[in-house]
Every structure is written in C-alpha cells, then in structure tokens.
Amino acid sequence: DLRKQARQLENELDLKLVSFSKLCTSYSSTRDGRRDRYSSDTTPLLNGSSQDRMFETMAVEIEQLLGKLTGINDKMAEYTNSAGVPSLNAALMHTLQRHRDILQDYTHEFHKTKANFLAIRERENLLGSVRKDIESYKSGSGVNNRRTELFLKEHEHLRNSDRLIEETISIAMATKENMTSQRGMLKSIQSKMNTLANHFPAVNSLIQRINLRKRRDSLILGSVIGVCTILLLLYAFH
After folding, report:
1. What are the helix (H) ranges across the chain?
2. Domain ranges of the chain
3. Does Transport appear among the keywords (predicted)?
4. CA 225 – CA 232 distance, rounded (Å)
C-alpha cells in the first residue's frame, strides 16, 4: 500500500515537474518576445504577473507533494525496520532505496528549476528597470537638450553684454585719464606764463610800447596815403 501511494505521488510529481519546467521555459521566451516587441509581431499569451502567480502556486504544490512523498518513504523505512519482516528485509531495502533515489532526483530537479526561474526573473526585472531608465532618459533628453541649449545661449548673451560693458568702462576711464592729463598740461602752461609775466614786467611793458608805436605808425602812414590820394584826384580833375 505504501509503495502504491509512493508511485502515485511520484507520477504526480513527474507531471508537475514537467509543467514547472515548461513554465520556466515559457517565462524566458515571453521575456524575450517582450524585449523584441518592436521587431516581432508575436504577443505572449501570459504576462509576467500571471506567470509569477502560476510559478508560486506550482512551487507550493510541488513542495507539498515532495513532503508527502518524504513521509511515505519514512513510513516505508519504519516498516522495513520492523521485526515482523526479516526475510524480506533485503528486497524491501532495495525498493526503499530506489524510492529514495527517485525522491532525491525530483527534489534536486525541483530546486534546480526553481533557482533557474528565480535567476531569470531577477535578471529580467533588472534589465527591465534599466530599459525603463534608458527610455525615460531618451524621452526627457530632447527637453533637457533644448533647455541646455537655451541656457547656453542666454549665458553667451550675458557674457557678450558683460564684455561690452567692460569695454565701455575702459574707454570712459581712458578718456578721463586723457582729459585729466590735458587739464594738467594747460595748468602747467598757464602757470609758466604767469611766472614769466611776473619775472619779466619790463619785457611786458616793452611789448606794449612796441604795439602802441606800431599802431601809431600805421595811423600816420594811412593819413599820408589818404592826403596823397586826395591831391592826386584834385590834380587830375583840374
């Protein structure tokens, strides 16, 4: 009876493990199809969340079956160790060992398939987050580039305005320095003229006399020329 129950559980486990392995394979294929959705017309029948729920359900069912099969094997071990079956002990031990090997193979296959499934899901989730970041960056890169371009243009305008202001200020400072230097030169010339006038008053008076005599000579010469002209006119008319 225990062997019959063990075989029944082993058959169920075999079917469950085959379905579990197919689920893992289909999960990977679904992820690949979703990754290439822009270059392929195929659409997965199940999405990721449905497959994840199915995985959890099947994993729990397989673990329960493994637990039941482990209990059956333990009961068979107790039966072979009982005192009432000494003559069949070797054959029963062989049968028990075979069922234990089957249980060990199923357990190993289950953990291997489960680990592969979890690794694929973790990798796909990581790649999905990376693709989402890349798509968000691409979608926002145009706006960011436009903003950056506008900021650069505005910065260039500000730099040009600053440069023009600096040039205007430098021109104003140079003009101020030139006017200051010219003012100093005029003051120095005026001071030199005042110094000369103060040190040489005789020269100043002499120059004034020369100017007065020159003006007097001009008046005398003009008077003589006028009288001579009148006399010539009178002589000519008479």
Report:
1. 2-35, 48-80, 89-199, 201-237
2. 1-30+46-141
3. yes
4. 11
Structure tokens at 40: 């392929």
User: Taking the complete model, does pTM exceed 0.70, yes or no?
Assistant: no
Low-confidence ranges of the chain (pLDDT < 70): 27-49, 82-89, 128-145, 196-204
CB atoms within 10 A of CB 77: 17
Buried b (16+ CB within 10 A) or exposed e, 146-182: eeeeeeeeeeeeeeeeeeeeeeeeeeeeeeeeeeeee
Cα–Cα dist 64/4, whole Å: 18
CATH 1.10.3470 fits 1-30+46-141, yes or no: no
Average pLDDT, the chain: 78
Per-residue pLDDT of 133-156, as tens digits, reads 666 666 655 556 677 778 888 888
CA distance 63 to 114: 11
Q: How many residues are recorded in the chain?
A: 238
Angstrom distance (rounded) from CA 213 to CA 80: 165
The encoded tokens of residue 228 equal 């001579």
Say which DSSP state 87 is in: T
Tell which residue, 66, 69, 71, has the closest CA to residue 111.
66
Contact between 75 and 2 (Cβ < 8 Å): yes
Spatial separation of the C-alpha atoms in residues 116 and 127, rounded to whole Å: 16
Query: For residue 132, how far is the Cα from the chain centroid?
Result: 16
What are 44-57's pLDDT values in tens digits?
444 556 777 888 88
Q: Which residues contact 107 (CB under 8 A, 6 or more apart)?
A: 66
